[in-house]
Amino acid sequence: MWMAGVRAANACMQALSHLAIVWCSVYVAVFLAARTRLTPVLYFLAIGSTLVNAGVLPHESNVFIAGLADLGIVLIMFALGFEENSSRFVSAVKRSWGIALFGAVVPFAVAYAVTQYFWGDYHMSLMCGLAMTATAVSLTMVSLKSSGLQQSAAATGIMSSAVLDDIGSLILVAVLIPIASGLGEVSAHGLLVIAAKVVAFFAIVVFMGVVLFPEKRDSAWSRIPVIRYVALRSLLAFDHGEHATLGVLVVALLTGLLAHLFGFHPAIGAYMAGLVLKEEYFRFGDELTVNYYERTRQIVDNVAFSWIGPVFFVNLGAHIVFDWSVLVGVAPQVVVLFVGLFVGQVASAALAARYTGGFDARDSLLIGFGMLGRAELAFVVIDIAYVQLPILNTETFYMLMATAFGLNVAVPVTIAWWKRRYPEAALPAYRGI
Question: How many CA within 13 A on the CB side of residue 151?
């Protein structure tokens, strides 16, 4: 009994030591990202891989760190949805639908074709195509801001189309992962069942947003006896809004668990929960004294992007054990995939922006460059397909990680180069960083 207690205490100390190393590495990654103007995600992955190859971190994460990493990606996806204004998103759909559609279909087709050509595995090709579909809008917006282009028409087009991309990719994640993992039948009946689950889940999310969480106290829905007591505004306003953050996180976690109940990844539910939440829900009490929405958003962002969310990426990077023979072996595949995605992404997004969105030639090409990045959702797919489910092999994992790194580096480089076409662009607000 005594020895069991000692082992438990040692395991606890080991987990805390592991967490201390991860948090220190996060701080270093953020510092390097600020100096190089690249997304911190790249450094999270690089440092995690470096530490595991140096023997500082174990090859197999303990249960505590693995659980914290899973919570981290749920928080990240919730924060991304929470930041998006659903009304603005809807208003921008008409102009950006073509950018989102063609800017996603072409990269999916390129990644699928390259993987199928080199490995000939249908399931693997699906996951590689899915991983390379969604755009890293946060990386692009940071790069645009550093070039003084964050208020341009192209920036609005990139933001709205990237959100559409993410939502479409989330739906594809829900549909394709059961198929690729063998958990769903590749048949008309199997596809129909999966599609029915997708429709049912998103119908419940819409029901939550329209009925269970009425925007106005005097809405028709709020007059229903049971529903009037579950208004989200009442939950957030409890104890003068001191527990608003806890309220939204509860909603995010419960929606994530609901998604899991339908056979989807919890991150899907968390993102949709964030998209359902509106700033109007936080208008209670004395808004002139405290902006409850901004305060809650800042806390959620801090938790998601500063001290829990990054654990997911560092832990994912820790799965990259350097094998130079593998790196050299997949170099041709990396080059082919990178070139194919670069040309396909820029061309498809730019042409769609020009001919379906009505943007001028200058903004259209900027949109094409801005859609190159791959970050959160790409790494979620890679984690599911390589770490959680044995769909990807080591070679395709290396290929995807190297290609994503190259595409993310290309974003700030191409935007900074194309900035010369915008002589009216303001100087970066954070030039001294």
Answer: 7
The dihedral through the CA atoms of 62, 68, 69, 74 has a sign that is: positive
Is the pLDDT confidence value at 227 over 60?
no
Planar angle of CA 374, 380, 382, nearest 5 degrees: 80
Site of tokens 């100087």 = 427
- Return the domain boundaries, the chain: 66-421
Nearest by Cα to 157 from 301, 360, 345:
360
The whole-chain average pLDDT of the chain stands at: 79
Q: How far from each other are the two terminal CA atoms of the chain, in whole angstroms?
A: 55
pLDDT higher than threshold 90 for residue 178: no
Q: Which CATH number fits domain 66-421: 1.20.1530.20, 2.40.50.100, 1.25.40.10, 3.40.50.300?
A: 1.20.1530.20
- Residue 287 corresponds to which tokens in the numbers above? 């808004």
Residue 185: per-residue pLDDT = 53
Amino acid 364: pLDDT: 92
Where is pLDDT greater, at 303 or 375? 303
CA distance 98 to 355: 9
What distance in Å separates the CA atoms of residue 233 and residue 191, rounded to the nearest whole number? 38
Does residue 429 register a pLDDT over 90?
no
The number of residues making up the chain comes to 433
> Which of 240, 245, 246, 216 shows the shortest CA–CA distance to 228?
216
